[in-house]
Amino acid sequence: MAAAAPPPPPTAAPEPNMVPETSPIGHPVFSRIRLATPLDVPFIHKLIHQMAVFERLTHLFSATESNLSSSLFTSPPFKSFTVFLLEVSRSPFPATLPSPDFTPLLKTHNLDLPIEDPESHNFTPDTLNDVAVAGFVLFFPNYSSFLAKPGFYIEDIFVREPYRRKGFGSMLLTAVAKQAVKMGYGRVEWVVLDWNANAIKFYEQMGAQILQEWRVCRLTGDALQAFDNVNI
Amino acid sequence: MAAAAPPPPPTAAPEPNMVPETSPIGHPVFSRIRLATPLDVPFIHKLIHQMAVFERLTHLFSATESNLSSSLFTSPPFKSFTVFLLEVSRSPFPATLPSPDFTPLLKTHNLDLPIEDPESHNFTPDTLNDVAVAGFVLFFPNYSSFLAKPGFYIEDIFVREPYRRKGFGSMLLTAVAKQAVKMGYGRVEWVVLDWNANAIKFYEQMGAQILQEWRVCRLTGDALQAFDNVNI
Fold first, then answer.
1. Domain B27-212 falls in which CATH fold?
2. Complex prediction ipTM
3. What distances in angstroms separate CA B116 from CA A95, B43, B157, B161, B171, one per listed residue?
4. Interface contact flag, B213 A194, Cβ < 8 Å
5. Average pLDDT over residues B59-82
C-alpha cells in the first residue's frame, strides 16, 4: 500500500558530517540510505507488516519472506522493483566508495533528545556498528506516454515509530526524486489517503500536486482470477 | 494518462472464427491483439496523441516518435513497459503459431453495420491485408508489498473513435487481465476520472473496485528538477 504518515519536511538540516561526534549540544545521529539486498528481506518483511498495522490493513497483508525474496531483486536496481533502506546509528557510517548503481547517501542529525528504540534488536543488520533499520521506500519505474518517458512510482514509504517527525520520510522521498532526476525521468508519483491531511500538506510542501479527479481502479482476488476462463 | 472512454462490456460475443465470412447477416469484422514492436511506434505515437485530444490534455503531450522508440521496447515483453496493439480487418488474420512471449488473441465480430474509418490510411501496417490499428493498451509491472507479488498497471487503454462501443476496450482490458493471471500476478490497476460515470460503470462490471479514498500525488517538471540541487 501507499505512503504512510511521513514526518514534516526538514528544516535547515545540517550538511552530512558537519556535526562532530563530540558536539557539546544535542544528540548526534547518523543516517544512511542504501540499496537493500536479499539479505535485508527479514527487515523489509517486518517493515511492511508494521506498515499494514499502522494503516489498519493487516487483513490485506499476506507477504512472506519467501515471497519477497522471489519477487524483489529480480532485476538490476531501478530497472524494476527497488528498495532503499534507511539505517540509523549513533556512530558515523564508514565512508563508501562511489558505486555505479547507487552511492549510499549519508546525513548527520543533531537531535534534542536521544532516540529510544525498544525494537532495535529486531532491526539490526550489524550489531557491531550499532545500526538499526529505521525505514524504507519501495519504488519501481512507471511510464508517462504523454512525456514518452519513464518515471518512478513509490509503492511504500515508511519510517518506524521512534524515528518519525525527524525528517527521515523527507530523506527517503528526496532520495527517490534525486534518482529520478539523475536518470532523466519525468515524474515521481504515489498515492495518499484523502483524509491524511498531514501527509497531503507535507507532500505539497515537497512540491507535489495532488490530483483530485483521478480514482484508482483495482482488479484483484477472485475477480481477477475469473479472467482465466474468459475469452477476449 | 489513463483509461479513456471504454466501450460497454461485450455481450455474448461469438467465439473466434465462429462467424463464417459468408454469413448472410451482418458484417463480419476480424480483430487481433498482438504485442507491439518498434515498427509500430508511428501508430503508437498517433494513438497517444488522439488520446490527448480526447482527454483535452494536449498541453501535457510532448511525446515524439523518437522518445517513444528509445523508452519503449527496452526490456522483454511484460518485464517493463509493454504495448498490446488492437488490429481490425475485414479479412481473417492468418493463423499464428504459439509464441513463448505472447500468442496473438483473435476474435471475430458480426456487426450490424460496417465500420467506416476515414483515417484508416494513417493506421494501416499492412495494406495488402486491409488491416487498421484500432487501439492499444500500454501497461507495465507494479508491485504490491502486502501481497509480495507483482501486478500490472495499465497506463493507457484507448480505442479509436470508429471502433468504440463494440467491445474492443473490454478485449484490451481482458487481454491484460488474462496475462496477469497467467503470470501469477496479484492485481491489475489503473486510474479513471471521477466524473467519467460510464467508464466507472464499465470497470465495475468487469469486476474492478474503485478505491474512493486514495489520491494520486505527482512530482514533475520544475518541482522535480529542483531535487537535483537538494541535499537529503
1. Aminopeptidase (3.40.630)
2. 0.88
3. 67, 19, 21, 10, 20
4. yes
5. 96
